[in-house]
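Final report, Chapter 2: Outcomes

The project's central promise was a pipeline that accepts a single protein chain and returns its three-dimensional structure in a standardized token representation, suitable for archiving and comparison. That pipeline is now operational. To close this chapter, we reproduce one record exactly as it appears in the project archive, with the input sequence first and the structure output second.
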Amino acid sequence: MTRDWMAWYARTRDAMRILLTQWDPIGITGDGLECPEDEYDCLIGPLLARLNRGAGRAEIRRFLRHELADHFGIGACGHGTGAFTDLLLAWYATWPPAGSSTARRRGRHERTGRVTSM
């Protein structure tokens, strides 16, 4: 792995960790509660893999609903998986931050909108 990729992954992981913690589908970051920093890290790798290959809203939402039920042991209803999926896709469409070396090498396919390497 290159240093550029490792730096991009570290920034991306940290940003996704913030998004997931703010979403907090299992409700452990409320007032007076202390959430482990890595509580939702198990979702980051699989989500990034899906985002990188251009997965759409339905696939990402299906994955999140499955993980909430299977891994976290809660139902997906009422946890805002659709809204979070939309937020995640919008965030990823503008990631990484402008000016990074990775941003110059990454683009989107004109027709499909999928992420491509340049």
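Archive annotation: Residues 103-112 have pLDDT under 50 and may be disordered.
This record, like all others produced under the grant, will remain available to the consortium after the project formally closes.
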